[in-house]
Amino acid sequence: MTTTSTAAPLIRVDDDLSALPQEAWNGLLASSPLPSPFMRLEYLRAMQASGSAVAKTGWQAQFLSVWEGEELLAACPAYLKSHSYGEYVFDWAWADAYQRHGLDYYPKLLVAVPFTPVPGSRLLARNDEARAWLVKGLRALTQRLELSSVHVLFGDPKDQAALAEDGWLPRQQVQFHWTGDGTPRSFADYLQTLQREKRKKIQQEQRKVAEAGIRFEALRGRAITQEDWDFFYECYTLTYLAHRNKPYLKRDFFARMAADLPEQWLMFVARDEQGERVAASLVAIDEGQRAAYGRYWGATRYIPNLHFDACYYQPLAWCLANGWQRFEGGAQGEHKMARGLLPVSTHSSHWLAHPQFREAVAEFLAQEGDAMGEYIDELERHQPFKAGGAGTA
């Protein structure tokens, strides 16, 4: 643990997450503009304790916290990164440009939830003043360690405002989310709000899965057994291996989720006609926000259209039946629009130490931002719903 004095209050930097107070951290999260289960300290600790997000894998914890005596005023998850994997806001071109000019881009400082591109509050703070101290702490740590840059990914509007006031560069991207009005209804009723061609395609895809003898069961919270988690992890690992990659998350991470945050998880398990499990998808859920977040999936054998059913239709049907109001399908993927998930802007903020590179990146982001705005406008002109439907009728 190290400390950085900035007069008052005290700004602390911890590399051991067990040193941070869980109740106080989660209290700040609960009162934040956009809380999510991924910012709970239990989730972040599990990333570290399981060996999933540690210095060896390129995620060296440098969590910042702001204190007035024994009172926690603000905090954020920060990591020294030796690469840009697992972030979903791409800066590889910036790193290449630094390298071509004989400069080191890595390590950099990153404020984010590892491997989790879900928008939400990042700078947890009791008030705006405490949030501003946190921003100062990030800049001070970056300068003290002589880092190239610091980045805050998928932050909420208050995060963005505090960082913009400090001169950080804003960046806009897009994801695809479904939102409802909280009225419970059937998936069949929902399909009636879609344009005919979109509705027929989904019905055909689901029919083919059903004709293959596949049936789904939804397991929530403590109803998910260790055997279920073991099978899910097998599927999760197979998905990465199919793309010739190693999985980011260790099995122990999910064991910790089952023990520490069981009610934050919903699992869909697909079985064939013999009752054998063939696929699983995992969705994080937040009762308070009435929101669900598609996270991981995998299958032990290929079945056409099973991915769409397990990852989109089953979770969406569950949200509709239970009157939940938001389903986030994860990063990227225009194909999600055909399933009723609409474009939503997401935001990140960046501070670069090198003046000339900062100027170049600012120009790039301005051009990218204009293009992204046009892209989102174009997407919105191709909504999958009937006129006036919007998926909530």
From TrEMBL:
Organism domain of life: Bacteria
Signal peptide: none
Pfam families linked to this entry: FemAB_like (PF04339)
Name this polypeptide is given: GNAT family N-acetyltransferase
